[in-house]
């Protein structure tokens, strides 16, 4: 199974379904569509042949690709589409470091089980904790995960390029040991 990608736009047949997949996320659709017109962002619908399976939103700066969103249709999760989506992202950005954020696993969180499942999924697919965290707002803590090929200082510089405008709104925290290939 390999996935095909198509750019997301308002007249796409699955547009409403895509909106539902990302409705609770941080940015409104109009903003994502607007930024996707740039040469550094990709808003992509994912298909298995002609069957819509999910959506991803990527931001790339030089050799770093940040997976801002990856959502698979709930009716077909656990059928290998998430893994295939990650493989598709990596094949479209060969040589790039692929990073993403996952919410910190806090037992008191309303979506605790979902957070645990996400961490398991990304770990199973080669992502490791970079020892970097950031705090968004006053209380939303995220871990930064990567398919890592460089130590944290290089990753931190790349991450700051991707989120230059947002760095004054977040606090980066380094915990634990940096990832490396060794």
Automatic annotation (TrEMBL):
Entry-linked SUPFAM superfamilies: Acyl-CoA N-acyltransferases (Nat)
PROSITE patterns noted in UniProt: GNAT (PS51186)
Protein name: N-acetyltransferase
Superkingdom of origin: Bacteria
GO molecular function, one term: acyltransferase activity, transferring groups other than amino-acyl groups
Electron transport found in the keyword field: no
Keywords: Transferase
Pfam families referenced in this protein's UniProt entry, alphabetically: Acetyltransf_7
Keyword presence, Transcription regulation: no
Domain called N-acetyltransferase: residue spans: 3-148
């Amino acid at each position: 199974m390999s996935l095909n990608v198509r750019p997301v736009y308002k007249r796409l047949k699955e547009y409403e379904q895509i909106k539902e997949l990302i409705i609770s996320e941080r940015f409104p659709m109009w903003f994502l569509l607007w930024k996707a017109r740039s040469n550094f962002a990709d808003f992509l619908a994912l298909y298995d042949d002609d069957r819509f399976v999910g959506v991803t939103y990527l931001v790339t700066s030089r050799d770093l690709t940040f997976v801002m969103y990856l959502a698979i249709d709930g009716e077909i999760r656990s059928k290998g589409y998430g893994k295939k989506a990650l493989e598709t992202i990596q094949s479209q950005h060969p040589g790039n470091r692929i990073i993403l954020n996952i919410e910190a696993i806090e037992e008191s969180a309303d979506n605790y089980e979902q957070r645990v499942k996400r961490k398991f999924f990304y770990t199973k697919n080669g992502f490791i904790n970079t020892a970097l965290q950031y705090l968004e707002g006053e209380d939303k803590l995220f871990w930064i995960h990567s398919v890592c090929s460089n130590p944290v200082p290089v990753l931190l510089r790349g991450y700051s390029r991707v989120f230059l405008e947002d760095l004054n709104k977040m606090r980066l925290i380094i915990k634990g040991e940096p990832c490396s290939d060794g």
